[in-house]
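Let's study a protein:

===
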Amino acid sequence: MFAALCDDDKYVTEEVKKLILEHAKENRITVDIDEFENGEELLNSEKDYDIIVLDYQLGSTDGLTVARELRKRNVLSCIIFLTSYPHFMIDAFEVNTFRFLLKPIDKSKLFKALDDYVRIVDANYPITLLQNKKLEKINSNEICFIEADGKYSNIHLKDTIMHCSKTLSGVTKLLPKYCFVKTHRAFVVNLHYIQSYSSDTVYLSNGESAYLSKNYQKSFQTSYMNFLEKNYVRL
């Protein structure tokens, strides 16, 4: 993932960078961050950024003008505005602003914005795996669960199984942390596919099941409850 930080206050840029790197480490996300002191520098960059954290006031070039130009290049970029003046918020929505955060930066609000963006991206997040000496590309949302097979692993999709040359740990490192959780030393499940669970089994919506061991019961239940709270509406 590529991120751009643009603010004429170096202290703010360093603080946001530190928080994004902290979030990336916690969620097993690889992120490359470029820093810019003004809008002209950002617009001169040839990179296509996934996330753009942009100060609304940038001296001679305001953030909204910069955002308009960036949006012409990439309609899918996640633009997060930073400002000390909340009355500018309405104007910012014309460039499909993902979030509008007030200075000083609130860590929990920035993390919430990043979490929400990652969830959107993960729905179609591609990973490439070596299967039978052939590279195969799949989306993370196609995976129901992964099962260890010695030094290899079996990736269970909705209606097929891929035998992969990576270990269970190796595959898991490629996947979003918020929805892939270990239930047993040999099983990692996608929380999106859980139908129900008992004291020793997790039942999945594709008709298969995964073991739930005592060692992982508590961590699994905590992760699943947090997942449901953030992703589903209780009726």
